[in-house]
Amino acid sequence: MSTDTRTEPALHASEDPQPAAAAVPPSSPPRRPGALSVFRSEWIKLRSTRSPWWCMLVALVVPMTFGALITADSGEEIAIFFSLAGMQFAAAVVLVLAALAVTGEYRYGTIRTTLQAQPSRARVLWTKAAVIAGVAFLIGELAAFATYGVSKFFDTAGRLALRTADDWRMVAGYGVVYALLAVIAVAVGSLVRHPAGAVPLLLIWALAVENLVLLIPSVGADIYRLLPFVNGTLFAGDPMITGVTDPLSTLGSLGLLAGVAFGLLGVATAVLKRRDA
Amino acid sequence: MIEARSLTKKYGQLTAVDALTFSVEPGVVTGFLGPNGAGKSTTMRMILGLDRPTSGWVTIGGRRYAELDNPLPTIGALLDAKWVHPNRSARNHLAAMAALAELPERRVDEVLEMVGLSAVANKRAGAFSLGMSQRLGIAGALLGDPDVLMFDEPVNGLDPEGIVWIRTLMQGLARDGRTVLVSSHLLSEMALTATHLIVIGRGALISDCSTQAFLDQAVTAGVVLRTPDSSLVLPQLRSAGLEVHDDGPDTYLITGAAITTDQVGYLAAGVGAIIHELSLRRASLEEAFMELTADAVQYSASGVPDGATSDHEFALAAAGK
User: Which residues 6+ apart lie within 8 Å of A117 measured at CB?
Assistant: First the structure.
């Protein structure tokens, strides 16, 4: 066998690296795309499928409907907190929306195209969390104020009004809470990676597990006070009902929720960096 | 140019990629050949920084993937045509990628035009046929106009027209001076597409040479000779520089450079030997390939897959592809 001619390309390259090196044009564009480009990409991804739009619609319509029904049907007393009861439902929808935005990338493999284009995994996850938290914030504010507006329309006796700072917090607070819930859902979604795992986990945690804690006789109530979703409700809650009257404790609730959210996001970032995509 | 040195990936007990060292040079199409489960996709995922090597390293143009400032203009890849959200349009899928690499929006329309998907740019990608999905994947790889391109089994499931299109495209990209690495489990396809071949089996390097050299080595053509006069004819053949292998009772496989039946016939006649059979034997490409990689096939028909593996690769192996 005359191997001399056949291996020529390899020999050629090793003897004279000049042509091979010259054939690769200088790559590396001037700078590394920053968080803003990830932000734009995430926004395109979020708005270009239908489920986020459906989630947004449901998160608006359901609290408004319940607000109208609760207010119209209530007798003597009505508090802002009660008229916004449907916001609990919208919170669950926000969890689903945020979890799906991440787990969908794993389900359809697009996370790999994303990480191919932007190898900084921390930047991808944090920007994704920021975009979805931003949308969740808007949903929270829109839904809360729209629900308050509708409730006020049905409140013919004029009992609902935004008089105090607490009153404002009980409406405007939802946007902040929803943004943090979205961060939790993004972190959990990134850790679990499967929609069928992340979504039930979040919903059961938020809707069932935290309330079960109350049933633990001696320490239940103390633990309950430290749970993230409970604290979300406490922050946007009514001091007359929740018993949390100290403004510092109200802010403490927000801080605790934020701490859990960013703690989880930190864990999710570390795991994402280590794991094979 | 892609350079891998001692690249290794282990999943628990299973070694998916075993100390691979190779270079992919610009200007030619390099085939990445191996049976299913040989570790081709895992290697490509490590090149793209998606999977972390257990040991060893791989660089693109001298830099590791994570060090690339903006990867898409450096390396474009199609690893799996199904990596799209089914409800997202082809244009939005590419627009999200283009935004990440800070490429202008018109580049999306350009690549859609290049792969012939302009007419369906706003259709949901989930409704695409496999051929259209492959084209969308290729559009994504071309998006950054990269110097290095990588395609994992791009012709899988394509019709002949699509296969020719991809083959022509890859050869054109190489002619531009780009580095093109394309994986396949079909030697016959690689023989038509690639100039250079990196062949692996069970994650380890089997061969790294020109396609022509590999084919010459793999397709051992020989002449089958059946004769009762072996004592007469065999020394004659050997002295003519041919190799003689036993191939059954009174039967011999004669090999040598550019061997023909005529040549063996004349030599036998020269010593007055009786010939019962004289014929040419040519191994098919796939037979030759299977022979070369026989020890390296991960999932043989009798074998049960051991350890962790990619569902995709196992499904393909099970389907006999």
Answer: A41, B71, B72, B97, B100, B101
Chain-centroid distance of CA A47 in Å reads 15
Q: Do A24 and B51 touch (CB under 8 A)?
A: no
Say how far apart CA A41 and CA A250 lie, in whole Å.
36
Question: Is the residue at A26 inside a domain?
Answer: no
Answer whether A113 sits within 8 Å of B70, measured CB to CB.
no
Q: Which sign, positive or negative, has the C-alpha torsion B289, B291, B294, B295?
A: negative
Instruction: Give the pLDDT score at A247.
Output: 72
Q: Are B65 and B212 in contact (CB under 8 A)?
A: no
Angstrom distance (rounded) from CA A24 to CA B147: 7
- Identity of the residue in B100, B102, B147 whose CB atom sits nearest the CB atom of A27: B147
pLDDT at B305 over 70: no
Mean pLDDT, rounded, of chain B: 87
Residue A3 lies in a domain: no
Strands B75-78 and B148-152: parallel
Cα dihedral sign, B103-B109-B110-B116: positive
pTM for this entry: 0.81
A1 touches chain B (CB under 8 A): yes
* Residue A76 structure tokens: 């003597």
In this structure, is residue A61 part of a structural domain?
Answer: yes
Residues 6+ apart with CB under 8 A from B272: B229, B232
The amino acid at residue B281 is R
Is the distance from CB of A114 to CB of A41 less than 8 angstroms? Answer: yes
pLDDT in tens, A51-87: 899 999 999 999 999 999 998 888 777 888 889 999 9
Spatial separation of the C-alpha atoms in residues B192 and B212, rounded to whole Å: 11
Range of the domain at A100: 34-274
Structural domain total, chain A: 1
Round to whole Å and give the CA distance between A187 and A176.
17
The Cβ-side half-sphere exposure at B230, using a 13 Å CA radius, reads: 15
Provide the shortest C-alpha distance from residue A92 to chain B (in Å): 23
**Beta carbons within 8 Å of B26's beta carbon, 6+ residues apart:** A20, A23, A24, B1, B147, B148, B174, B177, B178, B179
Query: In the predicted model, what is the mean pLDDT of residues B58-75?
Result: 93
Q: Which residue of A has its CA nearest to B85?
A: A108
Q: Using CA coordinates, name the residue in chain A closest to B176.
A: A23
A231-245 mean pLDDT: 83
Pairing relationship of beta strands B179-184 and B222-226 according to DSSP bridges = unpaired
- Answer whether residue A29 is part of any domain: no
ipTM of predicted complex: 0.82
What DSSP character marks residue B66? G
**A/B interface, count of CB pairs below 8 Å:** 146
Sketch out chain B's domains with CATH numbers: 2-216 (3.40.50.300), 220-281 (3.30.70.980)
* Beta bridge pairs of residue B268: none
Residues in chain B with CB shorter than 8 Å from the CB of A51 are 87
Q: Judge: A1–B217 Cβ closer than 8 Å, yes or no.
A: yes
CA-based R_g, chain A, Å: 25
Q: What is the pLDDT of residues A13-43, one digit of tens each?
A: 333 333 333 333 444 444 678 889 999 999 9
